[in-house]
Structure prediction request, 207 residues.
Amino acid sequence: MSKLAVFDFDSTLMDGETIDFLAAPLGLEDQVAAITERAMAGELDFFKSLVARVALLEGLEKSKVDSICADLPMMPGAAEVVAGLKEKGYTVVCFSGGFRNATEPACERLGIAADFSNFLHDENGILTGRVGGEMMYSDAKGDMIIRMQKLLGIGREDTLVVGDGANDLSMFTYADTRIAFCAKQVLKEAATHCVEVKDLREILNIV
Prediction:
């Protein structure tokens, strides 16, 4: 029997927010982090907050972005939880409101089947401050999980979702096992399980 496990990336599979790491070389980390915090708490529209934060990255070299993204800290237990879920028959995927530069190398390392995230637009190797992709809206993850379930022939009873912020709410709607991981209050209220320690291996005790 096949099952589906969908993980958020920032502050779930990865210990931190990719965009905060990218803002650091520009000296804008605090400014970007403040917007991220409000968006994850559900106080700001996710799309508007994403566009505003990416605009601040204009002028950053793409090579710098890629080198930062190749070295992001994974959450404790990330490799173990992916391996453990695969052993239990889960197809493991990642949905991220962040960026492909970060999700692609991390998911390859972790053995995750597919990653869905956004693209930072660049011209001649310099970020333009614009962003595009399938994960830009607050309901994007919910829309994508329905498509994944149809594709794989998996129902909500065999779907596990893990996230930490308000933009994960839409995918929580379509899964019977909903894990809020070190999460904002708005997501905890929609969860079936809450993990309060920074160790993804805790999820293996739930499934």
Q: What stands out?
A: The chain has one domain: 3-206.
